[in-house]
């Protein structure tokens, strides 16, 4: 489990990534976070133009679920959560979220490798 605080519109917002995130995301949005983040990362790395509407929705959903996981005082709906911010740039926040997700995934992979060594597999 990893946490990161990101400043959005002069407001400190905590985000958390853990093994619970895919489940929370699937329950809340009925979507696969692995597929969504893969699409979002491809759009971000190859974006010479604007993000598509679907990319923006995925970004908002992922940011919301990670913030919700970090702070149980977050509003129960994504709309209420987004309402507390003025406009903010996806280009500033998305790299932070992708880094948090990527670091969490690397931690999980290393844990599995170390378990296999200890278990003698």
In short:
This protein is mainly alpha-helical.
Q: Can you offer a commentary on this structure?
A:
This protein is mostly helical and 121 residues long. The chain has one domain. The chain has 5 helices and 2 strands; from the N terminus they run ββααααα. The chain has helices at residues 21-29, 33-45, 53-70, 78-83, 90-119, and strands at 2-8, 11-17. Strand 1 (2-8) and strand 2 form a beta hairpin. Helix 2 packs across helix 3 (53-70).
Can you lay out the helices and strands and say which pair or pack?
Layout: E1 2-8, E2 11-17, H1 21-29, H2 33-45, H3 53-70, H4 78-83, H5 90-119
Antiparallel strand pairs: 1-2
- The CA-CA distance between the termini, in Å, is 25 Å
Output the helix-strand order. Answer: EEHHHHH
Radius of gyration, in Å, reads: 15 Å
What count of domains describes the coordinates?
1
Strand content: 5-15%
* Structural class by sheet pairing and helices: mainly alpha
List keywords for this structure.
mainly alpha, 121 residues, globular, 5 helices, 2 strands, two-stranded antiparallel sheet
